[in-house]
Amino acid sequence: MTYLPPDEATRARMLDTVRFDAAGLIAAVAQQHDTGEILMLAWMNRAALDETLRTGRVCYFSRSRDALWRKGETSGQVQSLVDARLDCDRDAVVLLVDQQGVACHTGRRSCFFNAMRPEGLVETSAPLVSPDSLYGQG
Amino acid sequence: MTYLPPDEATRARMLDTVRFDAAGLIAAVAQQHDTGEILMLAWMNRAALDETLRTGRVCYFSRSRDALWRKGETSGQVQSLVDARLDCDRDAVVLLVDQQGVACHTGRRSCFFNAMRPEGLVETSAPLVSPDSLYGQG
């Protein structure tokens, strides 16, 4: 599956329709394109979404670091874009991606592993890799 | 599939671990439990998430109306909860649901239908029902 990037003018025209919030952000949900698994939820500003569409490599905006966050730059766990889909009111985006390795900093495929059950929080998956191995401390 | 609600003490204990933002909200992503389709992204405050866990009927918080939003109360398009899963840093939740009818106010199953393509925005699905029929004007 080859991702085809829109040209600059087309990107600008589409980005003009996005309703970024007061902080200039929209919520972005990454979903593995072929299995439907939801991997993570993060944030994008206009520059992050533009870079993602231009390069086909997912780039978020880190609110804690106040900077662009090129997913996998440190860990190697990159997300290749397959399709980006804005919602009906243009203030959220689903990214259909091909996730290399694991999406979660805990070493799990998905960040959404804390199920809210009658017995309390239950982890629905175990880490596939050590977090240390993701960030060069292993 | 019968949803089993946690009791009040267990709900309170789990809700105490959720990291609501400065406005008291977390992002909530609804996913059809058996197909994996992402239906919508909305917001929940503590009361909305507690009611959802208690009743097994999804209740959001409407930022525009500043009030609880019992999904389907007007349209009949209710979401029955199957499982709620917090992410690794507890500031987002995926709701595995069984969606009755359509999730989107435009009459589509999913709100995420505006694909960002080389030729510009492309609608990936057409309405299944008339929006008027959802809100009693049909």
UniProtKB/TrEMBL annotation, chains A, B:
Pathway in which this enzyme or protein is active: Amino-acid biosynthesis; L-histidine biosynthesis; L-histidine from 5-phospho-alpha-D-ribose 1-diphosphate: step 2/9; Amino-acid biosynthesis; L-histidine biosynthesis; L-histidine from 5-phospho-alpha-D-ribose 1-diphosphate: step 3/9
Gene Ontology MF terms: magnesium ion binding; phosphoribosyl-AMP cyclohydrolase activity; phosphoribosyl-ATP diphosphatase activity; zinc ion binding
Binding of Zn(2+), residues: C88, C104, C111
Domain of life, per lineage: Bacteria
Cofactor note: Binds 1 zinc ion per subunit.
Keyword Amino-acid biosynthesis found: yes
UniProt KW Cell membrane keyword: no
Location relative to the cell: Cytoplasm
EC numbers: 3.5.4.19
Needed cofactors: Zn(2+); Mg(2+)
GO biological process assignments: L-histidine biosynthetic process
Catalytic activity entry: 1-(5-phospho-beta-D-ribosyl)-ATP + H2O = 1-(5-phospho-beta-D-ribosyl)-5'-AMP + diphosphate + H(+); 1-(5-phospho-beta-D-ribosyl)-5'-AMP + H2O = 1-(5-phospho-beta-D-ribosyl)-5-[(5-phospho-beta-D-ribosylamino)methylideneamino]imidazole-4-carboxamide
HAMAP family attached to this UniProt entry: HisI (MF_01021)
Function of the protein: Catalyzes the hydrolysis of the adenine ring of phosphoribosyl-AMP.
Subunit structure: Homodimer.
Family per similarity comment: Belongs to the PRA-CH family.
Annotated protein name in UniProt: Phosphoribosyl-AMP cyclohydrolase
Organism, scientific name: Gluconacetobacter johannae
Lineage: Bacteria, Pseudomonadati, Pseudomonadota, Alphaproteobacteria, Acetobacterales
Gene: hisI
